[in-house]
Amino acid sequence: MLPFQSNHAIDELLVSYLLGEATEEQQRSALKWISASAENERYFQEFQQIWEKSRELAANSSVDVNAAWERMREKLEKGKNGRKEERKMGRREDGKVVSLAGWWRRAAAILAIVLTGAVSWTIYRQWTNAGWMELASQEATLLQLLPDSSKITLNKGATIEYPKQFARNKRRIKLKGEAFFDVKRKPEQPFEVMVNKLTVTVLGTSFNIRETDSATIVIVESGTVQVSDGNQSIVLNAGEQLIAGNTKKSWTKVQQTDKLYQYYRTRTFNCDRTPLWKLVEVLNEAYDSNIVITNPAIRELPITTVFENQPLEEVLSIISQTLDITITRKDDQIYVE
């Protein structure tokens, strides 16, 4: 396992990973380094929060993109034995120059400003008067380590609130949106998630919570959780799912048949006889696309396959061939029939 280190090699690897330019091998190396220790996870979380803030600020920046990128390159290349090697922007090991076009160059430039101290990542975390901290994932997933070493992966657009230090007899956080929880076991200090008038209570387990306009969905991956709303309560075991309706207050407990819910943290779409409508719903969210099923007769068609971080066009092509259906594109809309 790699030890914790903040040096130019690690920083550059993380930049490539967040820019989406890392090769499969580099992605594996980045994930291995992040999971090697709690210190590495904390470092990556701060790094990722800086990245998220940089995306938010990018639209308002008037920075010289090339100059900022070069300044970041210089910062990342300092320090090892006091040497600084000359490199051209985006030069690969085979000598070819890769340019960062458009939005990516702009985002990288803003990230460079942040890394050089113009913007602190702490402005992304806000204290409330009650002593709670708020963290929002904006347009990308976000990994967060809580004070008790529990891990939370926020899907894009999700928000959590949590205290800097948990109470002695309870660990309570608030959630809006969707997140996956890997909770550190502490029987004497139950872990509670407050979401949409529900309370999800655990001792130590992993589970996913998704809040939508019509329902709150809790999926247990390991261990056991208890869900309650003050009027009713239900226990979920590993492999079970609860769909709690927001209006009719109807609760439905079913077996979770696929792992599609993991897509935002694994970058894998794992379908096991998954109905087409459900996969389309997730693809629209993951790729920020507008896919519409125009033929009601194919909505429930089951599909069993695995997509691993593939381009949307490739995913749609495989779906079309597998289910023998037609997929067409017109402007920004994609029609499935």
From TrEMBL:
Protein FecR C-terminal domain sequence ranges: 269-336
Record domain FecR protein: where: 145-226
Top-level lineage group: Bacteria
InterPro entries: FecR (IPR006860), FecR_C (IPR032508), Ferrdict_sens_TM (IPR012373)
Name listed for the protein in its UniProt record: FecR domain-containing protein
Organism per entry: Flavihumibacter fluminis
